[in-house]
Amino acid sequence: KAKANGRSTYAFYSQELTSQACERVQLATSLRQALEQQQLVPYYQPIHDLKSGEIVGFEALARWQHPEQGLISPARFIPVAEETGLIAAIDRRILEQACRQTQAWLNEGRNLCFISVNISSRLFHRGELDIQVAKILARTGLPAHRLILEITESAVMEDAEGAMIQLDRLRKLGVSLAIDDFGTGYSSLQRLKRMNVHKLKLDQGFVKGLPHDAGNVAITRSVITLAHNLGLRVVAEGIELPEQAAFLLEHHCDLGQGYGFGRPQPAVNIVWQSTASMQYGQSAMAARPAVDRLPKR
Ligand code: C2E
Ligand code: MG
Ligand code: MG
Ligand code: MG
């Protein structure tokens, strides 16, 4: 009897595994088609200067507009894209669309400083990233100094020496560089100095606990001080609450993004709104419709 049970349990699991593997293969196949059919598009999340409140740039975030399943988030398709190597083509596609859109905004007279785009470790370590970026800038007309490439700490650490060479080439091209999810990886301070990037993006995990979590307060303050001493600017991610924004401003964090200011949106839906009109830093920020739905603490 026990044996029979064991067998059926085994059969159950193996069936489940097979269907999971099946789903992955299906996802990979339809992701390849999605690329051909232009279903991968950037959404844009505003990045505000915390002092003036103005929108100074956007982060481009990939979305898959699936004809049947609707909007699919990166959490679902990026792992498959990384496994299959499709991620490099996705990154290039998002990069090109984002550069083109930003140049269009500049042509309309929008006062934008930059567009920030995520670069996967795969594309970063491929060696010819600088050449591909140069081509995209030439095709879209966006000046190099308007582009920020976001690279994660862990991507740099995969091959630190190769990373230094690539970062150097990108810098010579005139693009800016940011370390994404800063504080979640293991880069040494020595290495951070040598990477010679322009911005650090403070991971949202640290912003979450502000201003109550003593540990996150200490980390946030240290990262801001460290960055400023090295001549870098700090972008805080995941700002949802007015008190988080107020804390970051008070501690001289330069830039910020988060649902509290604006969610990632298609280009046509962007509302060009300063945080000043959100009565930023006061509880009235919670009066904004988008913020109404945020959990209160
Ligand atoms: P990331 O680059 O660290 O981007 C920030 C993520 O935080 C985005 O998630 C954004 O929508 C989300 N976010 C922004 N504000 C808030 C907030 O106030 N609260 C919370 N809880 N979340 C907030 P998203 O768009 O789902 O992207 C997730 C990750 O997927 C990104 O993290 C990035 O690592 C990756 N990704 C997105 N687009 C691309 C892409 O085009 N290429 C590559 N290689 N990776 C991408
Ligand atoms: Mg990012
Ligand atoms: Mg990030
Ligand atoms: Mg992050």
Automatic annotation (TrEMBL):
Describe the location of the EAL domain by residue ranges.
24-278
Top-level taxonomic group: Bacteria
| This protein's name | cyclic-guanylate-specific phosphodiesterase
Organism of derivation: Azomonas macrocytogenes
Upper taxonomic classification of the species?
Answer: Bacteria, Pseudomonadati, Pseudomonadota, Gammaproteobacteria, Pseudomonadales
What range of the full-length protein does this chain span? 360 to 656 of 663
